Amino acid sequence: MDRAFGTALAPTLDRLLADGHLIRSEVEGPTISGPSWATILTGARTEEHGITDNFMRGHRLADHPDFLTRAAANDPTVTTYAAAGWPNLTDPAGPGPIIRLRQDDITDGRHHVVSLNGELYGYRAIDPEIAARARLALRHAGPDLSFVYFCEIDDAGHYFGVDSDEYAAAITHSDHHLSTLLDVVDARVREFGETWIVAVTTDHGHIDAGGHGGDSPEERQTFLVTAARGTDLPASLPTRLQPAEFVTWLTGVRRELGG
Predict the structure, then answer these.
(1) Is the pLDDT of residue 1 over 60?
(2) Are the CB atoms for 112 and 106 separated by under 8 Å?
(3) pTM exceeds 0.85 for this model
(4) First-to-final CA distance of the chain
(5) Which of 70, 104, 204, 225 lies at 20 to 30 Å from 24 by C-alpha?
(6) Is 11-253 in CATH node 3.40.30.10?
């Protein structure tokens, strides 16, 4: 967090925070992407979804659907979208995926999934493509609920460490991708009078040398930045939540704001 907020590396994130609200949090389970994203996206804790690493063998995701799937089950008219370059999140050929494909909903036009392979082609190349496809979906379809993932920062942390120029550049690149998505959201607010909730989070931190998976405060730290477009956030907002509580709280905010 201290390498992004208020450092001039992520001006879009800083503006989003100035207009919105910061919730601090700590990873409860292993500080590894598989279990952390499973917890964030499903609301289930590690002992519930059964994921302890990125191989995700023996997972119980069938019992713990992601928030997009749950929303569609509660309201069949809801439209959803997911785009990621990390196969564990969206690729049905990979481990998981954490976000369900829902082929019937894709056929009916209520769900769309973009799954690219940053592990093969590199996230510095794949993240801009994820952003471009997400912009098109937001601009032309305006899904009710979306999840878009950028992984270059994590990748740079592993290869170069968090004090490197490469890590700083990755923060700036991801911040730029975020700015292009917000431009589309703001255009929809102006044109259609829509209201949007924007949430930004991450699955874990890094040690200074790069890497994670341990129990240090640097690895456990995470956050949820939330802002509203076309309306205001509720007056009463929490300052701390557990990652397993993120989607439940955001769902409640969406309901309160009439979404």
Answers:
(1) no
(2) yes
(3) yes
(4) 30
(5) 70
(6) no
